[in-house]
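Hi there, hope your week has been kind to you so far. Do you reckon you could talk me through the fold, stretch by stretch? I've dropped the whole record in just underneath, so have a look:
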Amino acid sequence: MKNILVTGCAGFIGFHLSQLLLKSGYKVYGVDNLNDYYSTKLKSSRIQILEKDSKFIFYQNDIRDIQKIAFNERIDCVINLAAQAGVRLPRENFNKYLASNVDGFLSILDFCVDNNIDKVLYASSSSVYGETNSIPFSENEPINSPKSIYASSKIFNENLASVYSSEFNINLIGFRFFTVYGPWGRPDMAYFKFADSILKNEPIYLNNQGQMSRDMTHVSDIVRGILSGLEIIFLQKSDESDSYQNLIFNLGNDSPVQTLYLLETLESILGKKAKIIHAKTSNEVLSTHADLTKAFQYLAYKPKVSFDEGLKDFASWLLHYRDKT
């Protein structure tokens, strides 16, 4: 049984990935600092579910202090999902992106070098593409026009991965996630905030007439893609003799959804109309759309969950979770 270290295990994607890894027979060492960027109660609930499996061991630590943790077994692979999420933190909090996304990732890479761990998977983001005229977004496109500090920190992650793969012979795979949604999701995300506001009869600020579009990707598809990356990095097999030292993959749905359609679909599912206040924003890209050609070629990645089906899945969970809490 292989031992996988998952950082950010109490987060949305980290929680679902840890569940899938445990179900797939891996032992999971989870690390999370349980910060208060959003509800710590939600994060603690996720950990409580994971700890029902004896193959899950949790450490409440900051990844910048990863060297201080005494793991009782050798770690075979690290999956780094810990990060300061979101693109909207005010300027006075920009240092949080650097502390977690840059310093934290650097600590993870140094930990791997010091402990002879040569397999690392990590979270990047579709935000690295910025405002590009090339649709859909391909991994071959240059990434030199980020629109947020968050995006810049993720670009720096990818650059660090490139350096450590060549200098220290580490096999690294980065995943550019496209707007992930689903049960146990992040309350700061638009789909979650919209649903919560509809249920509470509170106003919703709809940017740019709801004409922005996002490649909404169900979390189950995302974690299956990560698991496929884990399997190829262990098996080291492909149709070609490619090295797995430094690969980047888009993980998306290849089917962008307009924000207005998202809102209208939630209204239909929840059976309530939203109170809309129209607003404008200038710090977000108008559209995201993942080119999945490379992910399909290497990982056989193909999303399975349609947006309408996935949103019903989320809404069902939210209603149940609200009733319990």
In short: Residues 237-241 have pLDDT under 50 and may be disordered. The domain at 3-181+218-254+290-304 is CATH 3.40.50.720 (Rossmann fold). Residues 94-114 form the longest helix (21 residues).
